[in-house]
Write a structure and sequence with these properties.
The chain is α/β, with parallel strands linked by helices. It has 13 helices and 12 strands. It has a domain of 243 residues: 3-Layer(aba) Sandwich (Rossmann fold), CATH 3.40.50.720. Bound molecules: nicotinamide-adenine-dinucleotide (NAD) and 2'deoxy-thymidine-5'-diphospho-alpha-D-glucose.
Length: 354
Amino acid sequence: MILVTGSAGFIGSNFVLDWLAQSDEPVISLDNLTYAGNRANLANLDGDARHTFVHGDIGDSVLVAELLQRHTPRAVVNFAAESHVDRSIHGPEDFIQTNIVGTFRLLEAVRAHWNGLTGDDKADFRFLHVSTDEVYGSLAKDEPAFTETHRYEPNSPYSASKAASDHLVRAYHHTYGLPVLTTNCSNNYGPFHFPEKLIPLMIVNALADKSLPVYGDGMQIRDWLYVKDHCSAIRRVLKAGRTGEVYNIGGWNEMPNIEIVKTVCSLLDELRPRADSKPYIEQITYVADRLGHDRRYAIDASKIERELGWRPAETFATGIRKTVQWYLENEAWVSTVQSGAYRDWVETNYSQRA
Ligand code: NAD
Ligand code: DAU
């Protein structure tokens, strides 16, 4: 079996659902259900004997040691993190606690467990750490995309905390020989994406007849990858990646934010036209920029293709259509996640920007 942390969040839940759709290898889920964690994301697995959900913190050393001892997973896949840049700007403390201290405690528990293994169990064990392209900093328009050897230049409290966790993972391999793998991925989108992030926020705001807040000039560039492609890349790295190595994962799909927003608008025009038949782009509003906003991320994903034969299956056109359709078909999920705390966050982040 494998232990997956952060499994009730956006990518973690997609990963667990896809894993159990493709194999019968059981999964232990560990998630402390922050605002971003949602048991409903895993509701399809209720009653499935292959899945065990544990409500707990990666920083709870006693709990993690007990889980490792009881279930002896062959791998730990670490998604657990605070993940939203804007929240890290408003309040960095939780990012330091989970992304740095939490990862450190998880590594310590895993190291102690791995030290006690023998033979093939020890040789085959893996710790896979899921990280981000944001650790590499920001690129100018004509600079080449990030490779795995690009220097770390994190610019937000979020990316700095992820960078610190990546360094700890690296050090546990170098110093203790822990068999680690690190992946650095670009922006994901798809089902179960919490509507604080660009694409789901634009979909839910458009449908609610609210403004579509584009930061600054909207010309910041990100590389976008459909979440299920990220999950397939992680499965591939877990299976065949070389320990101690880093693999960049991306969609070969750089786009300015404003183009993303316009694409979402035109899909909604087609799939759920406004009552007044006007285009959704009329709801776009340019608002004050994010502090320290990184201008461009771009991922060179040729190493994972060359060494492990992985490439994304979806294009942006196919992935974004599936995503918009998923939000239209899952209005109950959308209204559940838009709790009072969510509305407080929207007020905190957007009220001063107009
Ligand atoms: P998310 O915020 O949707 O989910 C994070 C999950 O981790 C939540 O379920 C939350 O409850 C859980 N969690 C937080 N703190 C925890 C703790 N201390 N102990 C246990 N569980 C905890 O995030 P996501 O978008 O699914 O991202 C998952 C991982 O992938 C993160 O490490 C993130 O840095 C990385 N990543 C995300 C993207 C992206 O575009 N979303 C891209 C590249 C890498
Ligand atoms: O690059 C990988 C990263 O992608 C992950 O590590 C992060 O966990 C994930 O949240 C994401 O970070 P971003 O900051 O790129 O994602 P976000 O959806 O918050 O913003 C995407 C872009 O859209 C960014 O340039 C900011 C802009 N934006 C965002 C919001 C929420 C807006 O213009 N308006 C908005 O309201």
